[in-house]
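Annotated sample (chain length 451).
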Amino acid sequence: MSAETMDRSDPLTGGQRGPTPAPGLVLVFAAGKPAAVPLALDGAEVEIGRDHPIFAAHPDTRVSRRNSLVRFDGRRFMVIDLGSRNGTFADGAELPPDTAREAARVIRVGDSLLVPIRDVRPMQRLGVRVAGDRIEGPSLQHALEAAAQAARLGKTLHITGESGAGKEGLARAFHACGPASGGPFQAVNCATIPEGVAERLLFGTKRGAYSGAEADAQGYMEAAHGGTLFLDEVAELSPAVQAKLLRVLETGEVLPLGASKPRRIELRFCSATHRDLRAHVAAGTLREDLYFRIATPRVIAPPLRERPEEIPWLLQAEAERTARGLALHVSLVEACLLRAWPGNVRELLAEARSAAQSAHAAGSARVERTHLSSTAGSAFAPPGGAAAVKKPSEPTRAHLVSALKRAEGNVSAAARELGAHRTQLRRWLARHGLDARAYAPQGRRTRGKGD
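Output written by the structure step:
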């Protein structure tokens, strides 16, 4: 698999290579095209303007010579407009001159977009990689490498992550990097298997096993012989089928329905759920013995909200698939960077396709925010149109710890990142025995509850 790394460059302001995070910005969109240029803040602030080196390879004539000042105070990125000709926007809102405002998601100067990030070192090292049809930012690259390492060291992998975040892509990486890469890759979504037929679909059937079984039928497991079997939503299988699956994984033998002798198979096994497997065990939907067989090693598919640098590239790829030469307007990319995308990459691509089709049908040469559905990437509301926020799915303990670390124990900031209300986040923290104050800098640990 060939891969091209886009804008993989050395830090523009001198790099911090030690363990201390390097807060900074990433230029993700400039003058109509995606970018991936990291900029570490020098002395906790940086002045953005047309002559800054960050625009050397991505010139934007709508950026003023002295456009904006960005500061990081240890907790937040604060932005000040320096009297620019076309203004400065923080999270979609235009700033009055000489007034500092927080930017949590995106900063717009001219026709360019910069994403504030607490540690730009991964972007400095890895950039954004285009690998075939897949766009890979640093978080996704780390997850793919973890899947590849699991393939080199063992025969099983479990993947967790939200719906649409790319779990099958990680499973395919596990397959491609292992010794069985030349064999078949058999992907099965257990949640879509009709009740009562999972056993024969997975393990196959012998002729005469039941009324209508007029010939031997190969199951998914035999179809994966010599390769990799990927079972998505594995906990949706019934306990009886789980027991039979466990036996196959432990013995390497599959017994088709109605057969008297097992058949020997050789395969690698990858499973996935959109919830933590331990929650399935606690709920009684997953056998404990199967859990201990498949739960480790584990890789997390990072949600799209943790991969904002990928969004412009994903949008461009979908626009080009819809109509060659169709360009992106900064308003569309900014809107997409500001939305939660509960359906992750799957939802973004579907909505981008719809917006591109609307633009093309209207005869527009570029896709703008007006072509994007007003509900795209937003939380769901109940029937009747009453305003409400979709209850977010509960993150894993690892996700919670990650968010708290990035927010340095600030509950409000962590809640924003996770797309949840502070009250909901506190419930999750209590359920997992986590104290937000433990992740705050030493000087703030005794003050309040991390707000």
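Annotation: Residues 251 and 264 are 9 Å apart (CA to CA).
Annotation: The chain has a mean pLDDT of 86.
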